[in-house]
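Hello,

Following up on my earlier ticket. Below are the two sequence lines again, exactly as submitted.
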Amino acid sequence: MLEIRQVRKVFHRGTPNEVRALQGVDLATKGESFVVVIGTNGSGKTTLLNAVAGTIIVDSGSIFLDGNDITRWPEHRRAKLIGRVFQNPFSGTAPHMTIAENLALAICRGRGRGLGWALSKGSLSAFRDRVRQLNMGLENRLDGPIGTLSGGQRQALTLLMATCLRPQLLLLDEHTAALDPKSAEQVIELTAQIVQREKLNTLMVTHSMRHAVNLGNRLIMMNHGEIIQDFQGAEKRRLRVDDLMIRFDEVRRAEQLDESAAQMLELLYV
Amino acid sequence: MSLLIGALTIGLILSLLALGVFISFRIFEFPDITADGSSTLGAAVAAALIVNGSNPALATAAGFAAGFVAGSVTGVLAAKFKINGLLSGILVMTGLYSVNLHIMGRSNVPLFSSITLSTYAQGAGAKFLGGSEPLNILGWEVSVLDASTLVLVFLSIALVGAGLYWFFQTNLGTAMRATGDNSQMIRALGVSDENMIILGLAVSNGLIGLAGAFLAQYQGFADVQMGIGMVVWGLASVIIGEALVGSRSLGLMIVGAVMGSVLFRLLVAIALRLGLNPNDLKLITAAFVFVALVLPGMVNRLKSRTIGHSRA
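Thanks for your patience. The regenerated structure is below:
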């Protein structure tokens, strides 16, 4: 259960580059809801995800997760409740460490780390079973460094690592944007599988209209740091790519209208 | 022969320094030059305690603890106060100079007439061999003191190396390695990368302080200047170790750092024997590290250029 209340964030405040990335965002999601977030570049969708993950601390408003007020928690503390997959396939894994070591790090997410062996025979065979489910042939390469794998393989592993210890919330930040089309489909399919099987509360940012329409049971559209549209239930199920394109077009035209109106006023009165 | 044994012993002692530098420069990719101060700190603390009649084993452990604290200060400056890593090390190193003078009370503390670990080693060696007659190894005469000190140092380094190898495979040690490899990832997995850097630099400088404590007892004095150039020395050892055994696995890298340190010390001993001016030693060490850092890139560029030409 995630609840975001009136969250605001301004970057470079007081400079000519001031960006109002989040302007009072409200969002509440229940367990098992798979929310897809779309929006134009600079609409604040990644900022929203980073605000929830703790990569940035918001200026005002509050964020609750699983009954905890996590607004001021540092990133690593929130990791106890949150699993994450990043846009960059290199961000989610340690390249010079083996697949097994990376998984061993992941199963301790949010727990104290003591002086017990990170890898044991038992954990190795458990890792092998999990990795086999990816159908990528990686189960025989557990001792190989992750840096030698392809972007798609690394992203699939990151997804596995984010979910092998069930998170209260899964954050996916355009996690297929940097992949080739075939790997992107593979990773999306895997995402759908895992989220459904584990019944995970998920927040996914995407640029792909097709993924936005086909995945999830709720879709929110952001613009200029605000949620401008929220499709749920039957409305979300009926949604087609064309509907989204039309909606985007409307937003674009409204903005152009704003700009031309501003220009006109400027000409007339300044 | 005593030249060879001396070089081996100092090389092994300084391999603790190499292991410390390996942790900061290789595992965390953190250019920590606290070492110049923390090695002297370890020596100063151990020497001051020994002169005051403390148990030398305890004094040596205190050298480790002092280095541990110094490293954690550098870690706090860099991780919590977000001071540039290089500058954090410089600040602590500079501050330690005064601290070391205070601990020793003057710039040099001789230990020749005190009971040190070498005394212990000699006693144990004499008991083991049933006398303190010089040994005959392959026709060379070796004093019991030299031989037993070498054995003691070797055993200590083996213990520390094995301990590090174990530590870096525990849950905590694995998280530490991952922090150097990808700090964003380790934060997302619930580990404070700041705390990992602090602990890592503490362990690193603890080992360097330990090296200082051993060195002071071996050479028979602690000197406020003895730490100058230690970082570069350790880095040279690590680079030689990587050239010797590569960097495929953790165990190999640890063994490599020890081997690199011993080999480097042997080369230096030979060069000094052949008439190298000791004053030039630091310049040559620095030049060596420079070449070792630059050469691989230049060789690769030359290679790709020649391949390009042959294709064209």
